[in-house]
Amino acid sequence: MIGLQTMPAKQEAVADAVDRLEEVHYVAITTGAYDIILWVGVESSEKLGQFLSQNLGTIEGIRHSETFVNLSIKKLPAG
């Protein structure tokens, strides 16, 4: 999971841009510390680093990101 803080006027554009990325499986515009939460699926920590620098790092309007690595998943969303 990745939390994004965006420039206020760019929130929708950032959400649309990350939604188009192949590695992104879930995008939510949220309240709280992060403006957008992503669920990203990559094969390794190396691929995660590449995704962060080569994909997220090129999207205009992102002020800050924080990555959360799941150690264990207890429940998946329905569907």
* Overall body shape: globular
Strand content: 25-35%
Structural class: alpha+beta
Alpha plus pi helix count: 2
> Topology as H/E string?
EHEEHE
Counting copies of identical and different chains, the oligomeric state is: single chain
Tell me about the largest β-sheet: 4 strands, antiparallel
Amino- and carboxy-terminal Cα gap: 19 Å
Give a count of the beta strands, DSSP E runs of length 2 or more: 4
Strand order of the largest sheet: 2-3-1-4
Radius of gyration: 12 Å
What key phrases describe this protein's structure?
79 residues, 4 strands, 2 helices, alpha+beta, 4-stranded antiparallel β-sheet
Written description of the protein model:
Helix content is 25%, strand content 28%. It has 79 residues and is an alpha+beta fold. Strands 2-3-1-4 form a 4-stranded antiparallel β-sheet, covered by helices on one side. The mean pLDDT is 95.
What is the strand and helix layout of this fold?
Layout: E1 2-6, H1 11-19, E2 24-29, E3 36-40, H2 45-55, E4 62-67
Antiparallel strand pairs: 1-3, 1-4, 2-3
Brief synopsis:
The chain is α+β, with helices and mostly antiparallel strands. It is 25% helix and 28% strand.
